TrEMBL record:
This is AAA+ ATPase domain-containing protein. Residues 38-130 form the AAA-type ATPase N-terminal domain. GO terms for molecular function: ATP binding; ATP hydrolysis activity. Transmembrane segments: none annotated. Signal peptide: none annotated.
Length: 337
């Protein structure tokens, strides 16, 4: 069935084609002329802008976590490195392992270019470790390092989960890495260096290898449970101490003759809390400034043991006790997270 309209003739098609071809040639001619008038960097900017608006946007967002901030190491990078060691899967192809004499276990790290897939609250996250050679410094300057290698992690996920990742996942990694490091940390025993050379009295440390734990400690079970619960409660109440305006520390007074297990109890506390031990003998401190400097030189998460605190002051009561022949000793134990 045909309509009453006539089909265009072949001459009409040829005329339309010629007109379109002429328009295209004119547009190309104008573009060529403009290319000579518009600087190259301006043309590149215009083209990139057009590509940005007409190119479909990817739903994937990637966070770049540099190893260093330029001034100090990036805490998020270090925490990510520790955390990802626990996420190694059978699909991982290459790993780096190491161990120092002071470490208990092997240290496992990702090799360059390796990928790890993690899941958090139903969100799939892809990690990738990237290495690249930094820009070479001035070769005429012997004090500047050359061929420095930069490292960073790339964390990719759907951009709809940006708030969850930044507000919850990254803080979770920081806390998880902290607990992992505490589990494998080698405890130290710090004692005073009695030499009065340059710098005065100071701390010296060795590995704390005392085997005492609450499982092996000879102590009444009820009393042992009270001590353990008190230690655990104290560690969890940092915010409470801050809220009431008190220093976050706790003290124990251990009293008894030599050989009754005071030092073993201190070691069991240290192994339970993963705290270093600082052994302070006040008889070796001659000046308040030395004591203040020693306190400032201590680290975090420590147990400070003050030996024979009852002999630190010349009190009449203590002299009377010593005349009576009582050989009991006292330790004052204070621990600080």
């Amino acid at each position: 069935m045909f309509s009453g309209k006539e089909f265009p003739s072949s001459s009409s098609f040829l005329a339309a084609y010629a007109s379109m071809a002429g328009s295209i040639m004119m547009a190309q001619s104008i573009a060529n002329q403009l290319s000579h008038l518009i600087p190259h960097h301006v043309r590149s900017y215009l083209l990139s802008t057009l590509r940005y608006f007409f190119k479909p946007q990817s739903p994937i967002l990637t966070l770049v976590i540099d190893e260093s901030t330029g001034i100090a190491r990036n805490q998020v990078y270090d925490a990510s490195e520790t955390y990802l060691c626990t996420k190694v899967s059978p699909k991982t192809k290459r790993l780096k392992i190491s161990k120092t004499p002071t470490e208990k276990n092997l240290t496992i790290k990702l090799e360059k270019g390796e990928k790890i897939v993690d899941n958090y609250e139903g969100v799939e996250l892809q990690w990738r470790l990237v290495f690249a050679e930094a820009e070479k410094n001035d070769s005429h300057n012997p004090f500047q390092p050359r061929n420095v290698e930069k490292r960073w992690f790339e964390l990719s996920f759907h951009r709809d989960h940006k708030e969850t990742i930044l507000g919850s996942y990254i803080p979770y990694i920081l806390e998880k890495a902290k607990s992992i490091k505490e589990e494998v940390r080698v405890l130290k025993m710090h004692t005073l260096n009695n030499s009065q050379g340059y710098g005065g009295i100071k701390w010296e440390s060795i590995n704390l290898e005392h085997p005492a734990t609450f499982e092996t400690l000879a102590m009444e079970p009820d009393l042992k449970n009270i001590v353990i619960e008190d230690l655990n409660r104290f560690v969890k109440r940092k915010d409470f101490y801050k809220r009431v305006g008190r220093a976050w520390k706790r003290g124990y007074l251990l009293y008894g003759p030599p050989g009754t297990g005071k030092s073993s109890l201190v070691a069991a506390m240290a192994n339970h809390l993963k705290f270093d031990v600082y052994d302070l003998q006040l008889a070796n401190i001659m000046r308040d400034s030395d004591l203040r400097r020693l306190f400032l030189a201590t680290g975090n998460r420590l147990i400070l043991v003050i030996e024979d605190i009852d002999c630190s002051l010349d009190l009449p009561d203590r002299r009377q006790v010593s005349k009576d022949g009582d050989g009991r000793k006292q330790h004052d134990v204070q621990y600080y997270p």
